[in-house]
Design a protein that fits this description.
The complex is a heterodimer of chains A (398) and B (239).
Chain A lengths: L8 E5 L9 E4 L10 H11 L20 E2 L10 E2 L38 H15 L2 H7 L11 E3 L9 H11 L2 H9 L2 E2 L11 E2 L5 E4 L5 H6 L5 E4 L5 H4 L9 E4 H11 L24 H6 L1 H4 L25 H7 L3 H46 L2 H12 L1
Parallel strand pairs in A: 1-5, 5-10, 8-9, 8-10
Antiparallel strand pairs in A: 1-2, 3-4, 6-7
Helix pairs in contact in A: 1-2
Chain B lengths: L6 H9 L4 H50 L10 E6 L8 H9 L7 E6 L2 H10 L3 E4 L3 H11 L1 E4 L2 E4 L3 H8 L7 H9 L5 H7 L3 E2 L21 E2 L4 H8 L1
Parallel strand pairs in B: 3-7
Antiparallel strand pairs in B: 1-2, 1-3, 2-6, 4-5
The chains are: A alpha/beta (398), B alpha+beta (239).
Amino acid sequence: MTTQQLRPIVSVFPIKGKVKTIKQVPLPSVFSAPIRPDVVRFVHTNMAKNNRQAHAVSTTAGEQTSATSWGTGRAVARIPRVKGSGTGRSGQAAFGNMCRGGRMYAPKKVWRKWHRKINTNQKRYAVCSAIAATAVTPLVMSRGHRVNKLPELPLVVSDQLQSLTKTRQAVKFLKFIGAYRDVEKVIRTKKTRVGQGKYRNRRHVLRKGPMVVYARNLGIKKAFRNIPGVETASVYTLNLLKLAPGSQMGRFIIWTESAFKLLEDIYGSWEKPSKFKSGFYLPRPVMVNTDVERIIKSDQVQTVLRNRRPRSRKYGKKIQRADPYEDMSVMVKLNPYYKTKLQKQKELDEKNKKERKEIVDKSRKEYEDWLYFSEEEEEEEEEGSDEDREIEVLSDEN
Amino acid sequence: MSKQVPETIKKQVKRSFNSKEVKKEKNQKRMTLLKDIQSKAFKRAEKYEKEYLDQEQKLVELKQKALKEGSFYREPEPKLAFIIRIRGIVGVPPKPRKILQLLRLRRIYSGVFIRLNKSSLRMLHFIDPYVTWGYPDVETVRALIYKRGHARVNHQRKIIDSNEMIYDKLQKYDIICMEDLVHEIYTVGKNFKHANSFLWAFKLKPPVGGFSTVKRSFVNKGEHGNREQYINTLVKKMI
């Protein structure tokens, strides 16, 4: 299980002269360990508790009185009060955490659990992650180290560094390699500590500068000892608290060549266990290939996918539609026969109208004819009624 | 300027369900289907017009015939009713409440079609004080479905804006257009149940001119209960 069959090469630089590759070494497998900030944070917070010193409040603090409660009926609170008289202290409340001069609530004890046990494997996982992070430039930069002028990260330097004895030489080297900017930052930002630590022998606060990791101490420890911010460490005993200060991964590390090579032996790989940590293999990442996009777009996946369903108009826009009885186009869309129907209706109406007109005309004509003939009859009747009228006149006279 | 298209994109386009060619083909199929539906709709509408007319004339003929013979023609009992809920939701006892729910009359001035048979008549009996109902004629059924007809599509209430909508849902019951739907409802055909459940309950407006008194039955100069053919005039005021 190697994500990289071929390990990338890292350049080794000299400690003076010209900044040029003098050698190339393969990158140890540790640098491909999964970078797990969660693991580092957990291990760091617990590991940081391990250098604590016990502290507690005196066992007798606030208890060195023989105070007794006055009981009820004296118009005072029932808290124990100091016995006796003749002094301001007498009658004062004692013992309670709320009392002046009383003992605190839950007095601190020395048998508090100060240290934490962490599983060995977890510790090792965190260290592997932290080491891997030191090779990731963005992480180192985000930790705040000034690494712009470095020739390469991880920065590996010839073993001659281990033989340096003078601080002057060490500083010269740091300037040569471009790491002095980080030291300058440390010097520039040295401050008096905020808070009470300043009068508890922790007066100044310094940033963390580069860390120099060596395989053999041939004077290097002393050479770098007095440079502010710079720490040295043996590659055999890398401390997470130094690799990821404040549980923030990405310390700027300067490796010596032999230290760098030893990493492969100390931490092993996924195939070969570590030579120094029995039974320890490098932690495996959850995903071997993290290029998820590429995996999804690959032929193997795409050919097996079902077709994309058409975008569901399940909760689509509300359809607006005019009233079909007012808008003919809507009506025709719903009922294509409608126009024809109206036309037929119109024709039928006209036909009926015509028929009706005929009937009406016919009957009117009949009526007029009847009228006409009846008038003629009346006239005829009128002519023949003169005699009758005469008789009537005669009769009236009588 | 030669633009190099990445292989993955090319393959994606080839595999694409929504590629231009596929879309075009689908669209063409849809267009032919729509044309087919519309032409069928035309023919069916024509057929139904004739059918309704014939029905009316037949009724008249039978009545005249009976008169001539000196007997009576008893019209067949109505198969279809339109119910409108005319009382609100406050203070309704459980049994009528349940029946109103079953009939989809969940709010005031909502209306539904219902087929009349012994069981449904009994249901109506229970909810008489809360509804008014009657026998709608063709024009009423038409007006309701055309103007206020909403379909139940995907658990949503969507206005029927084309015959395609009806075709999609009711094609298997041989109902493909508005006139088919109207016909199925009005004549209470074999697939009345499906046609009716396709329609969301009608949401009507309060009647123009108002009600007299909902507390009394229609027979007693009120508004609730069976009002037979007068439902048609009421729907005109509420549609």
